[in-house]
Amino acid sequence: MNTIKHIIAVASGKGGVGKSTTAVNLALALQALGGSVGLLDADIYGPSQQRMLGLPEGTKPEQKDGKWLLPVMAHGLKTMSMGFLASERTPMVWRGPMAGGALVQMLDQTLWGELDYLVIDMPPGTGDIQLTLSQKATVAGAVIVTTPQDIALLDARKGIEMFRKVDVPILGIIENMAVHICSQCGHAEHIFGRDGGERVSQDYSVPLLASLPLALLIREQTDSGTPTVIAAPDSAEAQLYLGAARAIQATLVDPSAGSDALVPTIRMTDD
After folding, report:
1. Can you give the pLDDT at residue 82?
2. What percent of the chain has pLDDT over 90?
3. Pick from 217, 150, 141, 194: which is nearest to 172 by CA?
4. Strand pairing partners for 121?
5. Quick check: is 271 in a domain?
6. Phi/psi of residue 208, nearest 5 degrees
7. pTM of the model
8. Are 8 and 122 in contact (CB under 8 A)?
9. What is the pLDDT of residues 233-254, one digit of tens each?
């Protein structure tokens, strides 16, 4: 872990908002900008990165000296996932401490080598995995993924508050499924609401890193194992991911470049 410069948690308050798709594309965008990048799929109960990276079912990490895991290479990324350690059809019927132990094992026993960024695809919610990560690793910051829908925004706010309680800076918000543009007539429709990510970013004085459309190509490319940033690097969608990655880079190099410092930190007390 001492060879990793920046650990970035990609999180969401609820499932189904495109967090894993965002995590893999952000990791590939940081790599495209010249970084050495790892991707850890910490969604213990529902790992999906092995499929999104185009790795065949049954892919297993090699071991070294009987106690170290070697990351699986995919599209130039060093990756590790519970999906490599169990089959796609095997549910993780575990209590919280077991899931937290699995995260610690993947963090500590993977030989990551020298990395500029380790992107961690977090499970949805504000539970054991999030607390374990904040206790076991120095997290440079978190990216909160949401949709404009009011229900999703409620949970996004909880995610922001949770990370602040454990002193993890918020690097910014990425809004998914912001608008749908009809491929036949070009009509734009805000299916899940309008400007939700912008409202939350203003409320918490954190950057809105990107507002991504509800696009068929993003889904098709990720499902096929070639995420948008590498499948269509010149597309408008890929440029949005790259723009978000540039903003994250700038904040990590110079924390004053973000506006998170303007908001008071909330800490847990025994009161």
Report:
1. 87
2. 63
3. 141
4. 10, 41
5. no
6. -90, 105
7. 0.89
8. no
9. 999 999 999 999 999 999 998 7
Give, in order, the Cα–Cα distances in Å from 114 to each of 25, 137, 227, 253: 21, 16, 24, 17
Indicate whether 270 belongs to any domain: no
- For the chain, the residue count is 271
User: Cβ–Cβ contacts within 10 Å for residue 220, how many?
Assistant: 12
Rounded to an integer, the average pLDDT of 65-89 is: 89
pLDDT of residue 264: 34
Cβ-proximal residues to 187 (8 Å cutoff; 6+ apart), any chain = 181
CATH number, residue 44: 3.40.50.300
Q: Say how far apart CA 109 and CA 203 lie, in whole Å.
A: 39
Indicate the number of domains in the chain.
1
Identify the residue whose tokens are 């990048």.
37
Domain enclosing residue 143, as ranges:
4-262
Element (H, E) at 128: helix 128-136
Residues 6+ apart with CB under 8 A from 188: 179, 180, 181, 182
Most confident option among 86-90, 107-111, 114-118: 114-118
In a domain, residue 267? The reply is no
Q: Does any domain span residue 269?
A: no
